[in-house]
Structures
1.
Amino acid sequence: MALLKVLLLLGLGVSANSGVSLQKRIIGGQNCQDTERLYHVRLESSNATHSHLCGGSLIHSQWILTAAHCWESEPGWTNVVMLKVHPRTVIHYNQVIRDVPVIYGPNHNMMLLKLQTPVTDVPLPRLPDCNSRLKIDDVVQLAGEGATTTGYRRKRLKYPAIPSHLQCVDMNVVSLSHFHLTYGHVFEAKVPNKDICYGDVGGAVVHNDMIYGVISFVQYKSACRKPTAIMDVCKYLEWIKQTTGLE
């Protein structure tokens, strides 16, 4: 029987570990470079019984850009931002968010969080050049600390261990900016056999080293079924500048 299994595997041209390898390729991209995305932050919300994870970007010494539904406003919840989470060789530290978040408005998944203490030792990213808008098939880079594997039948994992290294993945723009009734102005990106997971929401979507988008929401419980929905930063750029004082 053992010999028969070996012969079957050889005949199929796969190895005994191929299932695990394929699973890792479904969502995961590759380790982000240690010199990029130093502005990436981790937003952790928790109460006595539950917790969840999001990403975000330090775009100003006191302001973080992320997705609005990453914030928990119910009594008993605490929202903490962990700064300098990438690369892992740097000592990270936390700040509890005490100010009320600034959310663009109902049915818009765009939020700014203000830090109590300014951060002066992190290189800040560039915001988009909105005179040069994204086009179909443009390559954008997404990053996050969500799951790098899936569960049974490619189900996304809700509470995985945080990966040991910030993950990056390149995707192609497949639909241009349009208005989503629940989340606001979004565009979509996709690439075969790669996807985001829950903990990646709020992370920056980069093109030409500028933040053109914010990962908005997971569209389906199973991975690789639908494109990734991304908030279009250009549609909110003036609001971001007015709120933060950026020029």
2.
Amino acid sequence: MNRVFRFVLCAALLLLPATLKAADPADDYPSGPITAVCTYSVGSQTDVQARIGAMPAEKYFGQPIVILNKAGAGGLTGWNWFMDRGSRDGLTMTVYNLPNFIAQSIVKKNAKYSIRTLEPLANFAADPVVLFVPKDSPFNSVADVVAYAKANPGKVTLNGSGLFVGHHIALLLLQKEAGINLTYIPEKGGSDSLQSVLAGKVMGSFNNLSIAMRAPDKIKVLGIADLQRHEFMPEVPTFIEQGYKSLDDATTNFRGYALPAGVDKAIVEKAAQKAYEMFNDPIVIENMKKTGVPYRILDRQAMLKIFEKREAILKDLLQAFVEK
């Protein structure tokens, strides 16, 4: 009898590890409402798009996604706050903005974030950079701008919404490839940049396609920095078509959700799948179209590759601006 008892006891002990195996932390995720930190102000393009993307959150996550705005310093304030105070349980996300956050992580010595501290989940928008001038401008192509800049170094004034954003980076890329000197005027935002162009304060603007769509009768769009022409402005040629190959989609304003590094990988993968499904919901796509947002839904794996590719380009381009 004792031998039988010992045999049963040994068998039970062998099975014990499987019985006591820890539950998957993603099983109960999310356990409450999710906060998504938007590093730009209420009403900004990023804010509006982030709210559209979260509209059907309860359908996919079983919990609402609440947008928390932490604006300042072109996003640096909010992303630093997110890295310092965001929880690592998957309940605090952020709205990433490419190439802005990568450029800042390279240039700003006080940036606490980089592509290694953010786990992209899914992308909902891709707002390409365009170059536009007033309707009465003598410039009718990118070649016209380049020719004038070569003959008049520093005399071409172009604005954009701040430093080290896609607009600024597009100008730096054009300068480098064309061998010209342009004068960049940073503004507070895309709308301010547009108004300065209309008021004649600058000769043109590198700006988002969505901003250019607000005044189609008052401006001329000379080129779009993307891999192909856009359905919203099919008549506008790409920079690549006009011979400037560095202005592909490297400056396109990709926007989506991310978790901080340190969140359990099982939660990251579950959140990534749910976010991708959510952004593909018809209500999200319909509202993106209504607001004139160039949407591009991409999954986590695609964004991981884009993060790495963008960082490689920007590290080379921005070396002269790195803070010591």
3.
Amino acid sequence: MSTGIVLAVNLSAPNVVDDAIAQARSAFDAGVRQIWLAQRFDVDAIALAGLIGAAVPGLGVGTSVVPINPRHPLLVASAAQTAQAAAHGNFSLGLGLGSHAPEQQGFGTVWPNPVERLREHLEVLRAIFDDGEVNYRGREFTVEPEWPVRIPGGTPVPIYVAAMGPKALRVTGELADGTLPYLAGPRTVGEFIVPTINDAAAAVGRPVPRVTAMVPALVSDDVDAARQLAAQQLAFYETIPSYQKVIAREGVSSVAELAAVGSADQVRAQLRTYLDAGATDAALSPLRTEQSDLQALWDVTATL
């Protein structure tokens, strides 16, 4: 199993890009071979991934995840190919369906039909990445450029989707290269996510998708305190319907139970349950970002 790290972007640093590159280089020197970057309303995840990929040769860089709203797939394709050229083939594009509450707060509107928008978004990306051209008319997007859409050195671009519902997983299996489920425990991965996405991919003749379990984590000798921290930081997800369904499917009473916490050996053991359930990869998302905590997670990642 390949294990990565969600890079903790430090917005209090004098220069966020310099700090992220330095952090990524330190993680690589510690044995980490894949980092993921979340998209928020501040740092652009695709751009930063490309910059890190260019500065730290050999390090896999990816986004986990860039919401498809309000982004047009033609612009996402341009940004992703640019990042791939900068990273010399080590970039992965992770997308998400988004959530209505942040969209309303950030953009003043929401986008209906999320699964249909995802399908069309992926169909446009596949045409550009696979064929180097696109002529597309859908209900959500029209893409008919009269200029080149392929960037030299910018393909192939692996596409992953943070899909957890059955419809989104089927679309992902048909059109993407894998999924990046967050807070989906081993039971959910093994009994629902893996069979659903694998069946969808097989039905259209695509390769077996990768399933990268994104797991909040903290190496700590005080398990109770770590669980309490996890409960505080993850409480937001218990308000989102899609995550409520995932938590219920896992059969836990609190989202904090899905965090990998404890000693380094305990965190490793918890991560191995995802491999046993059928995940192909995992990525640790730090619950605390002090340097010693990050170093401990890097060590776990390098030795799993």
4.
Amino acid sequence: MDRSIGFLMGVTYRKLSNLLLQRLRNYDITPEQWSVLHRIYEQEGTIQKDLALRSGKDKPTTTRILDTLEAKGLIKKQPDASDRRSTLIFMSVKGSRLIAETVSIEQQVIKDATAGISDEEHNLLIDLLLRIGDTISGISDQQHE
């Protein structure tokens, strides 16, 4: 297990997530909620299906997170006038303020976590993770055909 990519990625993800959780504690938001809120911030008015895809989450998880964000007053949902089956997601003023106050916290967590690697290694790591993700998606897509 000490050399298993899946195991090591899982352990590292949990460590990063816990560090971000600790640093976001005063904002009453989890890293999972924060990442979805940040995706909304990046592209307001997105539909829930696209948001789930861009967040790397399944539909039920995305629905649960959006319901929580809405209950906290961080987002607003609106029916899509052109497709009644779709819901558009927008930031509230409170949500925008929270992202503005916390984006530097997330950036500092990444900076702290990658302090021991060079910029070149950091970029290589990002490229490798993206390639692994794309490979897994391709395998998954083939299995669903």
